[in-house]
Specification:
The protein is of the alpha+beta class. It has one domain (about 20-240). The protein has helices at about 15-65, 95-100, 130, 155-160, 230-235, 240, and strands at about 75-80, 85-90, 120, 140-145, 150, 180-185, 190, 215-220, 225-230. The protein has a five-stranded mixed β-sheet with strand order 7-5-6-8-9. It has a two-stranded antiparallel sheet with strand order 1-2. Strands 3-4 form a two-stranded antiparallel sheet. The radius of gyration is 25 Å and the shape is elongated.
Length: about 250
Amino acid sequence: MIPPKTQTGRPKAFTLIELLVVIAIISLLVSILLPSLRQAKLLAQQVQCMTILRNMGTSSAMGMEEQGGIMIGIREKHKTNKGTIDVFWMMNNLLRVGMNLPEAAWFTSDPLYDQRYYVPPEAVCPLSYAYANPRPDFGGTCKWHDSYGWNGTHIEAVYTWDTSVPWITEFEKIEHPSNKSQIADGINPVLRKDRSDRYFEEIPSSSAVPAYRHDGRINIEYFDGHVDTRLDVDVIGSDEIWDAYGEDYKFED
């Protein structure tokens, strides 16, 4: 906009009132647009997270076919030429290969910072602690279970932390698989119903805590393979979501 000229031929300057009006209009537009931009960014991050979970579920289903109806377990025992090893879901190569991720080396000389648990940033939730804290010495990879966890409510209730028993899930015994969570946002490898009300901040925990990191929502992949997002109030303590085998199911010894 070119200011009008005065009788002397010089451009007429904006008055202080006019400048203040322009500044007020710009501030108003910014205040309107910023929340929309923030919401758009959060929605994009939520969709990205849900896509990862869907891929994890698809890969788990592929692994189930190879294992004769036994789904990817929270912990499985595998026999190798170097002995028997506990293979947690994060280092399960059936899951990794199905997602086009690097295979995990099951035996390593670095037990404290174990690369078997790490994946590229594109395989973790963009709002997770894992994504915000990659390991430069591991090529910028992220700890997978600082982003997602496997539902262990039904297994833990029976096996506790008995390391002699693999935590596996038989799909045919799942009660209403379209309602039961398999994988979800979390800050621990194993998620449990009785700890579902303990998420307070995005810090890794040893307490099997699901994470409501999407503005009070949690993304969940169910045993039938579909993914959705749920409010924390719908998830906390929910038998429908966490008790995969149902309260009346009797486990065989």
